[in-house]
UniProtKB/TrEMBL annotation:
It comes from Oryza meridionalis. Residues 22-143 form the Gfo/Idh/MocA-like oxidoreductase N-terminal domain. This is Uncharacterized protein. It holds the Pfam family GFO_IDH_MocA. Coiled coil: none annotated. Residues 1-21 are annotated as: Disordered. Residues 191-296 form the GFO/IDH/MocA-like oxidoreductase domain.
Length: 397
């Protein structure tokens, strides 16, 4: 059972509602939810109306620890069902273990709640399709919680990657090849490398939900690999690769959950990308995009070194200086500032989309579900390649 916080009035009847902040319900009190609770306190157009957990005591402890109880006075629910039944909740942020996503994301959609879903969004594309179908049927907005997508640095990097004078062509067509200098193996491509790793301690490796086969069975692939795959797809404007081949020698724990792995992706026009993800090596968040004219390099693409600014380097039309004693020109450093952290910008954007539906009679934005599904499809292909002894998986169809 659940009971409202004594500090919070009951939600108004539907006919008395007026345009205002999007009212979020936080479903579950995972550690990542603390970050999103802070984001909701910072983001214009958002308010936390309710917190739901498996007990009201847990919901209250979370609301107190995050400052929500004093700032937003959310209603506190002792079950997920009670949170979804709350008429004062417009949207649900769902950070539950991946194995629970289908059940509760679909239930949220059926209850008319818009869905902001933590990554990885599902254990497989079929499960994600069930979630997206539920959202589509209910006419609610879906978005995954990949925060770096919403940082203004990401938009600035997109400008330079798309600028052929700066970065160059995605590829040099085969017909342009004239000799070994163009690549004697038969391709000349934009090359993308992505790496996300962190050195987990023994407590994490033994007890975290991300190493438990019944909770988050994708392990490092689902957690860190999600970001790396998304970065690659972002770099190629979400064009799916033709073939995915997992790298050999992935590391698993005794329960069979991946602790480290990687894959290479191939496109029909010659683009190539490789990613690695791991719970076992030093904290690294690296993305490199190499075009015919330039190279973009960012070393903190998932979480910037600093909250208020983020940098990346761009080397364009690079060559050796005279006598090969340096580079000319030197790479340029670009620093992009932001007043709000990227997770608050994500909440702000999601809230804008919900407000457009709730207050203006608009329709759900289809861009985000489509991007999420492509990420999931590639992740499925990597997992299949690993399970099939690193054979190629064709996903172009």
């Amino acid at each position: 059972m659940s009971s409202p916080s004594s500090a919070a009035p009951p939600p108004p009847p539907a006919e008395q509602r007026r345009p205002g902040p999007v009212r979020f319900g936080i479903m579950g009190c995972a550690s990542i939810a603390r970050k999103l609770a802070r984001a909701m306190l910072l983001a214009p157009g958002a308010a936390v109306a309710a917190v739901g957990s498996r007990s009201e005591a847990k919901a209250r402890a979370f609301a107190e620890k995050t400052g929500l109880l004093l700032r937003h006075a959310p209603r506190l629910h002792g079950s997920y069902e009670a949170l979804l039944a709350d008429p004062g909740v417009d949207a649900v942020y769902l950070p539950l273990p991946t194995s629970l996503h289908v059940r509760w994301a679909a239930a949220a959609a059926a209850a008319g709640k818009h869905v902001l879903l933590e990554k990885p969004t599902a254990l497989c594309a079929a499960d994600l399709d069930a979630i997206l179908a539920a959202c589509d049927a209910a006419g609610v907005q879906f978005m995954d919680a990949t925060m770096w997508m919403h940082h203004p640095r990401t938009a600035k990097m997109r400008e330079l990657v798309a600028d052929k004078a700066t970065t160059g062509d995605v590829r040099v067509p085969f017909s342009h090849m004239k000799g070994p200098q163009d690549n004697e193996n038969g391709y000349q491509a934009r090359k993308i490398n992505s790496l996300f790793s962190f050195r987990a301690n023994e407590e994490f490796l033994q007890n975290d939900i991300r190493v438990k086969p019944d909770l988050d069975a994708l392990g490092a692939l689902g957690d860190a690999g999600w970001y790396s795959i998304r970065a690659i797809l972002w770099a190629v404007d979400y064009e799916l690769p033709k073939t995915v081949i997992a790298l050999r020698n992935p590391v698993r724990n005794q329960a069979g959950v991946l602790l480290a792995c990687g894959a290479t992706m191939y496109w029909g026009d010659g683009k190539i990308a490789t990613f690695n993800c791991s719970f076992l090596t030093n904290l690294t968040m690296d993305m490199t995009i190499v075009g015919t004219n330039g190279t973009l390099h960012v070393t903190d693409f998932v979480i910037p070194y600093e909250e208020k600014s983020a940098a990346f380097n761009m080397a364009s039309k690079s060559k050796f200086a005279e006598l090969h004693i340096g580079w000319d020109p030197l790479p340029s450093k670009h620093v992009v500032s932001t007043d709000l952290p990227q997770e608050a910008l994500m909440v702000q954007e999601f809230s804008r989309l919900v407000q457009n539906i709730r207050d203006a009679g608009g329709k759900p934005e289809g861009k985000w579900p489509a991007i999420t599904r492509k990420t999931q499809v590639v992740m499925d292909a990597v997992k299949t390649s690993i399970d099939n002894e690193f054979g190629p998986v064709d996903i172009s169809s």
